[in-house]
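Protein record
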Amino acid sequence: MRVLVTGGTGFVGPAVVRSIVEAGHDVRALARSRASGSNAAALGAEVVEGDMTDAASLRIAVQGVDAVVHLVAIRQGRAEQFERIMVGGTRDLLAAAKEVGVARFVQMSALGVTEETKDLVPYYGAKWEEELLVAGSGLPYVMFRPSFIFGPEGGILSTFRKIAKVAPVTPIPGAGTQRIQPIWIDDLAAYFAQSLTKAEATNRTFELGGPDTVTWNEFWERLKRALRVRRPSIHMPMAFMRANALVTERLPGNIPLTRDLLKMLEAGDNVVTNDHAVETFGIPLVPLDEQLRRAA
């Protein structure tokens, strides 16, 4: 099977590309340039230049592929950017995939995205619109909604690790009692690889999380234990965190603290509501303490 992977050059992408290649499939990775696609190429992927805002490049990218794995997303930006890159890009990609008769479309959404939360932040809204587009496309699909994704390098865990090691105290927004269910990046990648050929996953949406559910308070305790640091934690009022985010989100680069992120944290637990993914795929999942040990 030949598989097009969009977003194969980001944090999650290389792990997904590697897992699909190791499953015996040919991978084509969409990248803005040959240079930006070098990591995917090193994993054995064919690199094709293109962009989610360039419909013509998407039509070229899908030529000769049997399946599409769509990972591209942005977390920060103006409403117009979410609409153009995520919603419009997904619409164009689906149209291109239908033209060539792609047999499967695998979409990465996010845990917490529902019709009830779609208006909470632009990111949720764009993900919800993507889900509707995919489900209504007529293409056989698989949809994944992962919780926080942890890996040894990059991603949000790297930021948490720096805070735990460097900050004199660990700032925890609010009471720290909301629950999360982090999934290890290689486990996530295995779900994507298996979804390409697992018939019983067709036209279904799966919530993905690791085997452990913890509160933010418990998470920080476990992380600092894995890092062997003993700095104290302090609970920061959400009003203070929002005021801080108002400043930090205007800084250049990928800012970890934004008002939208705080809204998502305040919305409630970020945990799976059923065992459908575990029952359908049977993938052994890395426990949280082992995730933190690997990333320490």
Summary: The chain is about 40% helix and 15% strand. The mean pLDDT is 93. The radius of gyration is 19 Å.
